[in-house]
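Hi Y.,

Following your request, here is the sequence exactly as I used it, all 679 residues.
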Amino acid sequence: MTNMDMSQYLGAFLDESTENLQNLNDLLLSLEKSRSDDGCVNEIFRIAHTLKGMSSTMGFEVMAHLTHAMEDMLDLVRKGQFALRDEDISILFKCLDALTAMVEAIRGGGDDHTPEGESLPKALHARISAAQASGKAARGREEEKRAVMSDQEREWILEAKEQGMDVFEIRVALDPSCMLKAARAYMVVSRAGELGEIIRTVPPVEELEKEAFDEAFILCMATHELPDKVQQALSNISEVRTVEMTRLEGHQALETASDSRNLLEPVRSEDAEGGPEERDPVAETARAQATEAVKRTGRTVRVDIGRLDKLMNLVGELVIGRARIERLAMEAKLKAFEEPLSQLGRISGEIQELVTKLRMVPVSFVFDRFPRLVRDLSKNMGKEVRLTIEGKETELDRTVIDEIGDPMVHLIRNCLDHGIERPEDRKRMGKPREGEIYIAAYQEGNGVIIEVRDDGKGIDPAKIRAKALEKGIINRDEAQSMTDEELIRLVLLPGFSTAEEVTDLSGRGVGMDAVKSKVESLGGQFQIESKVGEGTRVLIRLPLTLAIVLALLIRVGNETYAISLENVEETLLVNKDDIKYVHGTPVTNVRGEILSLKDLAGILGTEVNREAIEEHPVVVVRSGRTRIGFIVDELVGQQEIVIKPLGKLLAKVRGMAGATILGDGNVALILDVASLHGR
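Below is the corresponding structure, written out as C-alpha cells. Let me know if you'd prefer a different format.
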C-alpha cells in the first residue's frame, strides 16, 4: 500500500470491482460466441484497464499485474494482430476466476497473493510473445501504409495556408504512469481546438477515446496563434510529458515527418463540406457523455444492506405503533383523532412502500451467474446447451434474492445432469443436438413467479415407482393407485434420487427436497411438472418481500393466528350438513369440486367445542397443485403485519413461520401453510 491511508476507499473498490467482474463474465460469454465482436473486445479491454488502475491505486500489485497482462493481449486483438482461439478464451476465464478469488480474499481481510496471480500473467505473455514474433514484419508494413495522408487532408492544409494560417504537426507524449490516457488526450484535443483548426489526429479521436495508443499521439492543426503559445497551453495540461511542434511548409512535409512517428491510422477521406467543422460534434458528444456520466454518479449512493435492514425494522415498529393507536382511538371513540390518524396512516404507508422499494433488487443479481455456470458444466459433461433468460429486470426483496441463489443452482444442475441428453442421444431421438434451458421471472399479483424449464428427457414415473418400491417408500397397492403427478412429487422427498451412480452433480439424494424446503421457508410455493421425452418445468412462487406483508387474522380457540394472504385462495362459510367423510377425511363440495378439510384446532392441539355451531369458517389455501380448507373458529380480518423471527429455540417448530405484534399489543403466531398441509 502507499503512504496514504487507502482503507477508507476499500469498500468502494470492492463494490466497483465486483460489478466490473460481473460485466467481464457476461462479455467473455458473448465473446466466446462471436470472436469478431470488436465492441465486446473493446469493452473487455476497458474493464481490464479500469481494474488495473483501481488495484494499482489501492496497492494490490498482483491484481494490477494480472489485469495489465490481460490488457496487453486484448490490445493486440483490437489491433488485429492476435486472433483469439478456444485456449485464449479459457485463459481469460481463468483470469476472471482468479480476479474474483482475489476480490473475495481482500473482502475477507486478506490480500491478492494467489498462485494464479503469478502463473496466469506468464501464460498470457507467452501467447503475446508468440503473436508478436509472427506479426512484427506485417505490422511494420501496415503502419507505413497507414501513415499516408489523404487527398482531402492535403487540400485542407493548402486552404489553411491560403488563409494565412500556420500548419503544425504536434507530437504529444503522456507520462508513462498516466492512468487516464483517454481523458488526457481529450483535454489536449479540446485545448488545441480552442487555439485553431484540427485537421487530423493520429490515431483518430474515436481511437483516442478508447485509449488505442501507447504513450504518444499526433495532432495536425492550423492556427493563427504563435507556436510558443500553443506549446505552452498544451504543456500545462496535467500528465503531458512533452509537446514537440514541427511547422509544415507544404503538404509533402507531413508525409515525410509522419514516416518516423508511431502513427496508427489516418482519418478517412470525406467531402470538402465536412471539413474541420466535423471535429466539433465528436468533441461535443464526448463532453456531453462525460458530463452525463458524472451527473449519474452524483445521483446515486451505495448503502450498506445492514442500514436498510435497520430502517425496515424501524418502519415495522412504526406500523405496529400506528395499529395500536388506531385501535385505542377506535375503542375510546375519539373522533378528533380520525383525521390525524388518517394522515399518519398515509405517511407511514408511503414510507413503508419507499423502504420496501429501496430493498428491491433485480433477479439479474442471481440470474447473471447462470450463463457461466451452464457453460462450464455443459463443457465438462460433453453436452450442448443453449440458455435463455427472460425477465431479469423483475425485482425481489434483497433478503429473498440472497436466499434463492443456491436453490436455483440446484435446479439448473438437475436440468443439466438429469434432463438434457447428450448430443448423439438427442439426434437419435429426433431432437436438435443443442438442448435448451429456459429461465424466466415475472410478477404475478403480490408475488414473483420463477420458471425453470428444459427440453430434456423428463421425469419417468415408472422409474420413480420402481425406485420408491425398492426403498420401501410406498407399498405395491399404493404404487398401483398413484397417478403420474403423485409419483413425480416423490422426487421432492428427502434423500430420494433416481441417479444410477453418484457423480459430482447428483446421486446423493439432495437437491429437489432442499429446493422445496428453502422455497417454503421463504413463504413461497413450489410446483413441478414433467413429461417423458419432452422435459421438465418447475414453478416457484415467491413473495415480493419478507418484512411487512398483508395477512388474514383468524381465531382458533382463544388464540389469534395470522396467515399470509399470498397463501390464501378464498374464505368460505361451510354448513355443518355439507361436510361429508371419505375414508375418514372430511370433505365438502365447492362449486362442483371436492375440497378436503382439516380442523386447524386438531393440528395445533387446541381444545374447542363446536357441537352447537352450524356454520364453520373455512380458509382455503393452496400448496403446489393441492387445495385444502382449514376449519377455524373466526375470520378476524385482514391486517398488515410485521414478521418477527421466533429465535433459535423455536425456529425449528413445524407449522410456524414467525410471529407478529397485533394492534392490541398481543403476540400472534404466523402459520406456515406448507408444513401444516402435510400434518
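Residues 137-146, 251-287, 289-298 have pLDDT under 50 and may be disordered.

Thanks again,
Q.
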